[in-house]
Amino acid sequence: MTAYEKTCLIRGDGGRAVRAVLDRIGDTWSLLVVATLDGERLRFSELQQRVSGISQRMLTRTVRQLERDGLVSRTSYGEVPPRVEYELTPLGRTLLGPAVALAEWAVAHNRDVDASRASYDER
Amino acid sequence: MTAYEKTCLIRGDGGRAVRAVLDRIGDTWSLLVVATLDGERLRFSELQQRVSGISQRMLTRTVRQLERDGLVSRTSYGEVPPRVEYELTPLGRTLLGPAVALAEWAVAHNRDVDASRASYDER
DNA sequence: CAGGATCCGACATGATACTG
DNA sequence: CAGTATCATGTCGGATCCTG
């Protein structure tokens, strides 16, 4: 792929496509929730336990948005006490590829970035 | 790659690696600026023209952070009027791979997401 | 158990005006 | 030209309390 093709792909339509995707999964929790649901069907409380540090409010908001975007499906059983389970949709699973690519970049290069920051901040 | 390996990669260390990356490029402009600099060395004003809609202030902040993170290099020629050029560093270029993967996902699936949103919002 | 409602502080972004 | 300074606004995320 040429540089021109890449830049067109990312910047296409004024960058609207990429911005749309980042608006969806660029927040603090969405990608972590999606990754956590990979291959598993989890209840709300289980999800909260596995995504360490997420508040109840943010988990609620995150799964709502993921559900709205069609990446996660929500199943509520009409029981008392309530039981609600979440899982990835087929569409949600397709996101794992790019997400893994990003994660691989992170683990491969975060040290370089941190080093660069440190040397920049010295000045 | 198994689901377990993926989830570990993304969620590893409490998701710190992915969060770090998203903190850097998950904002509105960083990824667009990086993509715009792909294969080109541009002056501040050229960059602002090509990244449509970015304000002067946000471009300044964005390139500063990208420079600090070692993804972009800044060259200031001591002239009057000032001339400053930006280009990707080798590290910055490595980000283009994951970025393209994300962009491809976006153009491939944004319609599905929009459709899901529309049907969700009907209710 | 799975949330909804409310309040709050921090930060991201933008508009505008100014400067070396 | 390439910024900096200041002000305003909106959103993100957390803490806390309440409920069917």
TrEMBL record, chains A, B:
InterPro entries for this protein: HTH_HxlR, WH-like_DNA-bd_sf, WH_DNA-bd_sf
PROSITE patterns with a match to the protein in the record? HTH_HXLR
Source domain of life: Bacteria
This protein's record includes keyword Cell division: no
For this protein, the record's Gene3D superfamilies field holds:
Winged helix-like DNA-binding domain superfamily/Winged helix DNA-binding domain (1.10.10.10)
GO MF terms listed in the record are: DNA binding
- Annotated membrane-spanning segments are none
**Which UniProt keywords are listed?**
DNA-binding, Transcription, Transcription regulation
Name of the featured protein = DNA-binding transcriptional regulator, HxlR family
Q: Which organism is it from?
A: Nocardioides lianchengensis
